[in-house]
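Listing S7. Sequence submitted for prediction.
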Amino acid sequence: MSISLTKGQAVSLEKADHTPLHRVRLGLGWDAAPRGLFGRTKEVDLDASVIVFAGQKAVDIVYYGQLRSNDGAIVHSGDNRTGDGNGDDEQILIDLANLPTHIDGLALVITSYTGQTFDDVRNVYARVNDVASLDEEVIRYDLAETGPHTGNVVAKLTRASTGWKFTALGIPATGAVAKDLVPVALAHISQ
């Protein structure tokens, strides 16, 4: 059963029996917004990335240009440059159980390398699937933010004593690539 979150809500990454999730797939999807007299759309290239934090320092970034984290626990599926089709447009697999213990936060961010804004997209969502349970969706967060920004700090995953916690953020930001959003993500990662 999937839990739908709203901005600011948090939930533990655990199964129904309260055991922690070990391998999750973050999915990001979007559609181009209709434009013009006939509602035509143009392709929109958003990029999903994960900024990896140890304490108050970004130590790694997984994105279309670096598809695997330095420790190998995070793997990006590759770049989708259009947002066409149903389902996830980009996915990132995270092996939470194999993240080094000094890693205590992950920020899921979206950027627009081509400079298109969130006024150019609709139906933006992020979701978490449990890989061990046939990719069952466990969390979904639909972003409502539109506007002239080119980035968004969608969510954070933070390590707790009992496992990992997912918090829906939806913080508008400006940036063409994930490293541009590090300061904004850092401001929210330890809150």
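Caption to Listing S7: primary sequence and predicted structure tokens for the chain studied. The radius of gyration is 16 Å. The helical segments are 182-189.
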